[in-house]
Amino acid sequence: MAQEATLLYGVGATKSGTTWLHDYLVSHPQAVTPPRKELHYFDSLSGEVAFSLEGMQETIGSEIQSLQDRLSKAPADKKRPILRRIGRLEDLRAIYVQGGPEGLETYRRYFASEIARTGAKVATDITPSYGMLSDTWFARLVTAMPVTRFVYVMRDPVDRLWSNIRMNSNKKAKEGESVAELCMNTVDRLLVKGRHGTLERSNYAATLDKLERHVPESNRLVMFFENMFSQNMMDVFCKFLGISEHPAKVGRPSYVGIALRLDDARRRGLAELLAPQYAAVEARFGALPDRWQQNMTKV
Residue 190, Cα to own-chain centre: how many angstroms? Predict the structure, then answer.
C-alpha cells in the first residue's frame, strides 16, 4: 500500500531561511507547493495575529487582478503560464471563503486535490507565524491532514531579530526617511521597553515547547540556519520527509535584506535581552553553531 502524502508545515522562524527552504521544495519533483509560500490560514482563523480570511481573499484577489492585467497585454505564446497561475490562485482563494469546520474541510480538500493532481509525496504550508499560535491553534495544525510533519529553523537570535528589524524598517520607511535611523531607533526602544512585535518571533523556547507537546518526535525536524545551506543538511531534510535526495543551491540564502551594521553596544544589549533563548536552545541541543556562541559571549 502506498504511503499517504505528507503536509509539511514550516513554522518559523521568520528571517531564518524559510524562503530558501520553500524554493528548494518548489524545485523538488516529489513536492507540490501552493502558488504563495505563506498561506496564513490558521492564523487568519485564530484571530491571534494581524491576518484575516477576508484580508487574505483581498490579497490574493489583488494578485489575480494584476495577472489579468498582464494577460491582456501578453503575446499569445506567453498567456498559458499566466492563465495557469491565475487558476491556481483562484483555487487557493477558495480556502479563505469561510471559517469553522467547513472552512477547514475546504483547506483539506485543497491539499488533497493538489496532491492528486501532481502525484506529490509532500505538500507544503510554509507560514513562519504559525510558530506563534496558541497551544489550541497549534494543536489543530497536527490533525489538519492525515499525515503532518513540521520543520522549524532557528537562527542566531540577535541576527534573526536584527534582520527582521531591517526588513520591517525598509518596508515602513517613507521617501527620504533614513532606514538606518529607523532601525537604530527600533532597537533603542526595544532595549528600553524590553518588548516589540519582532522580539516574539525570536521566542524559540515557546515554539519548541509547542512542538514537543503536540508533535511526535519522528514528525518534527529542527534545523539551525547557520548549518542549513548544505547538500548534507538537505539530504537529511529529504530523508525526514520520505522523498528522494535532490540537488540544492547551497550557500545561497534568499532575501538577505539591506546591509547595515549593528554596533557592538546595541548587539550586546540585544544579546542580554535574548539570553533566555540562547540558554533554552543550548539546554536542548548542546553545542550551538559558532555564530550563536559569538553573540553569547557578549552577554
Answer: 23
The closest of 114, 157, 167 to 12, measured between CA atoms, is 157
Q: In whole angstroms, what is the distance from residue 231 CA to residue 211 CA?
A: 25
State the Rg of the chain over Cα.
20
Name the pTM for this structure. 0.93
Instruction: Please confirm whether the linkage preceding 280 is cis (ω < 30° from 0).
Output: no
Task: Dihedral sign for Cα 157, 161, 167, 170, please.
Answer: negative
Residue 43, all three cell numbers: 492564523
* Residue 126 contacts residue 37 (beta carbons within 8 Å): yes
Question: Judging by DSSP bridges, how do beta strands 6-10 and 31-32 pair with one another?
Answer: unpaired
Who contacts 89 (Cβ-Cβ below 8 Å, separation ≥6)?
35, 36, 60, 63, 64, 67
Residues 166/27, Cβ–Cβ less than 8 Å: no
The residue among 112, 68, 75 whose CA lies nearest residue 89 is: 68
Q: Show the beta-strand stretches assigned E in 11-56.
A: 31-32
Instruction: Report residue 6: phi and psi, to 5°.
Output: -100, 140
The Cα 43–Cα 273 span in angstroms is: 27
Give the angle subtended at the CA of 67 by the CAs of 63 and 73, to the nearest 5°: 155
User: How many other CB atoms are there within 10 angstroms of residue 51's CB atom?
Assistant: 22
pLDDT in tens, 6-29: 999 999 999 999 999 999 999 999
pLDDT tens per residue across span 181-206: 999 999 999 999 987 778 888 999 99
Do the Cβ atoms of 134 and 49 come closer than 8 Å? no
Bridge partners of 153, per DSSP, are 223
Contact predicate 269/191, CB 8 Å: yes
SS3 of 157, please? Answer: helix
